Amino acid sequence: MEDAPAFSTLRVEVDGPIGRITLTQGDKLNPLGTTALREIALAAQWFDTTDAHVVIVTAKAAGSQRGSISESSPVVTGRTRTLRRVATRPTSVD
Q1: CA distances, 4 to each of 20, 45, 60 (Å)
Q2: Per-residue model confidence (pLDDT) at position 60
Q3: CB–CB of 36/10 below 8 Å?
Q4: Higher pLDDT, 85 or 65
Q5: Secondary structure (3-state) at 65
Q6: Residue 27: helix, strand or coil by DSSP?
Q7: Three-state secondary structure along 28-40?
Q8: Proportion of the chain in helix, strand, coil states, percent, rounded to 5
Q9: Residues 40, 87: Cα–Cα separation, whole Å
C-alpha cells in the first residue's frame, strides 16, 4: 500500500478494512466544487490500492446546524454499494 496522498479539500486514512474520507473545508460549508469532486475521485482510486472494504465519508462542520449533514450522519460507500443516511429535521407532532 502506498502512502496516503495529500489533498487540499479532504483527508484520507485507512484502519484495516475501514477507510475514511473527511471533507476539511467546514469553514466554507464543504462545497463540492470541481476540486473537491476531483479529489474524491482520486481518493477512491487510492482506496482501491488499500485493504479498505468500506469507505466512510464525513465532514468537519463549521458549526452545528439542525438538519445539516455532520459526522453523526456519514455517507458510507463500498466498492459496489452506497448506503446513505441523511440528517433530517425533527418533525413536530400536533
Answers
A1: 11, 11, 19
A2: 78
A3: yes
A4: 65
A5: coil
A6: helix
A7: HCCCCCHHHHHHH
A8: 20, 25, 55
A9: 21
Per-residue pLDDT for 64 more than 70?
A: no
**C-alpha cell of residue 65:** 446546524
Distance CA 34, CA 2 (A): 25
**Torsion angle defined by CA atoms of residues 35, 36, 40 and 45, in that order, rounded to the nearest 10 degrees:** 10
pLDDT value at position 1?
Answer: 67
The tens digit of pLDDT for each residue in 69-92 reads 444 444 544 443 333 333 334 444
How do residues 24-53 score in pLDDT, each as one tens digit?
998 888 888 999 999 999 999 999 999 999
Quote the cell numbers at residue 14. Answer: 485507512
Q: How far apart are CA 13 and CA 87, in angstroms?
A: 24
Contact of 35 with 1, CB cutoff 8 Å: no
